[in-house]
Design brief:
This protein is mainly alpha-helical and 295 residues long. The protein contains 14 helices and no strands.
Amino acid sequence: MTRRGILLFAALGIAWGIPYLFIKIAVGELQPEMVVLARSGLAAVLLLPVALLRREVLPVLRRWKPLLVYTALEIVIPWYFLSSAEQKLPSSTAGLLLAAVPLAGVGVAFLMGRPSRLSRLNWLGMAVGMLGVAALVGLDVGGSDLLAVGEMAFVVVGYAAGPAVLARYMSDLPGIGVVAVSLALTAVVYVPFVLLRGAWPTAWPSSEVIVSIVVLAVVCSALAFILMVALVGEIGPIKATAITYVNPAVAILAGVLVLREPVTVWTIVGFALVLSGSYLVTRRTALEVPPTAAA
């Protein structure tokens, strides 16, 4: 990997590893719907001018059917459930559970008619990864948070299915244009939800929450995607998928250092098993999809 590739990889690993921390802070005062609206709206304001300047909006809008499906699977549904789950789960646990996205990607590939020939090593990875998820859910999370774990399951499936839709139906479209329009659509969708559910804040949020929203929109969304495009161009989409194994480690460190979240033995065991399984299940398979912003 080139020096530029290493710098891009490190920057993206941080940008996609810290969202869980800032979501946890934001949902302390804001409802999940408001967090999604604020994050997607501000990110869209930043990225849409870039996409318009590059003339990437109209080509994306012409492919509106897969665009709507991608937006729902990648942003609209996962971002809500992730924010809702983090009202009950530690941010580090949420980040760890999302390390199972590559495992779900195998199932998505089969459902979309793109089955891979899985080797014994891949099947071993499936077993190891699921064992890691079981360790996190049953021994680290505990039964009181099973609803939040169910919400995280929607996030995992969405983050696995979104890139699959993108790769199959929109791989020829400009990436920044796709994300900019998707973020704008998400903001439009959430406006009525926020109003109908009374999620608009009645008081001005604290400075910590405002900073969290800004970081989520600017760093974890707009800047992160630009970094991803640059990283894929520098080292290729296959090597770039290794970012999936860095994000959970960053999420754990951020949760421990900033929020003083506990790290149990089962956190470490689950972390090792899930990441090992994700690595084995994606090794030498046809699941060569671009990495996704798993937060």
